[in-house]
Amino acid sequence: MKHLARVVVRAAKPLIRAHSGFVGSVVAVDTAVRNIVLTYDDGPEPGGTDSILKVLDERQLSATFFVLLSRARRHPGLLGEVAAAGHEIALHGLDHRRLTGFSFREVAQRTRDGRAELEDLIGSRVEWVRPPYGRQTLASWRAVQSAGLMPVMWGATSWDSREMPQSDRIRKAMTGAVPGAILLSHDGHAGPADGVDDGPSPSLDRGKLTAGIVDACEDRGLGAWSLRDSLQHGTPVRAAWFKK
After folding, report:
1. All residues at 6 or more sequence positions from 133 whose CB lies less than 8 Å from its CB, including other chains
2. CB 85 within 8 A of CB 147
3. Which of 16, 77, 153, 218 is the most buried (most CB within 10 A)?
4. Helix axes of 166-175 and 206-219: crossing angle, nearest 10 degrees
């Protein structure tokens, strides 16, 4: 049976690629404006989220924060600060467990519940979801869609969930920093309270990392916006993204 499933998936891949505009996730923004898209996962987290907010406020930049409900319940005031600062808030999950470990019905229900709770907390509509670890199957993608949200992935990352020198993180982020690129960073670090054990949080100042990335972008003539603001000047690029 497993062999048959693999054969079916392999046979379906060309069709999925050909119709990625229909079954794809947002991976970038097609825009003539020289801005990247700043996104942050796994918050809100004291010491991380607030330090990033300070830098964004000083630079007059916007970002999209993919929120864990397991964190938002513990830090509603910090979530309120993100919303009050005018940043876009999206869903990362009820917790940080992979959606690929749940059935279609469970993914759909978790996504609906997460969206409703998050919208109640911030008082505005939620449009996007980023599956934890970027892991999704065609079935979980369909389940998320049935709950009314669009998956958003990324094209560049700062590797800020790993232990490494700050300069290496900035260098990695800039590897894919082109207009319309979606940059993955984190304002928190998921742990047992979020349903997972990703090990100890790396030692870094997330605000300073944001400042360093923004400085490096400015050196290239690039600004930085949230996904919502970026789409005011461009269109979403969608592609098939399936990783179990």
Report:
1. 98
2. no
3. 153
4. 50
List pLDDT tens digits, range 197-238.
999 999 999 999 999 999 999 999 999 999 999 999 999 999
Residues 171, 212: Cα–Cα separation, whole Å: 10
Point out the residues of the chain with pLDDT beneath 70. 1-22
Can you read off the two tokens belonging to residue 100?
């690929």
According to DSSP, the β-strands at 25-31 and 234-239 are antiparallel
Q: Is 217 left (phi over 0), alpha (psi -120 to 50) or beta?
A: alpha
Q: What is the pLDDT of residue 22?
A: 67
Distance of alpha carbon 117 from alpha carbon 126, whole angstroms: 10
- The two tokens of residue 10 are 């392999």
Cβ 67 vs Cβ 118: under 8 Å: yes
Overall pTM surpassing 0.70 (yes/no): yes
Alpha carbon distance 69, 140 (integer Å): 19
CA–CA gap between residue 109 and residue 146 (Å, rounded) = 10
Q: Is 59 helix (H, G, I), strand (E, B) or coil?
A: helix
With beta carbons less than 8 A apart as the criterion, state whether 71 and 196 touch. no
Dist CA 69 CA 4 (whole Å): 37
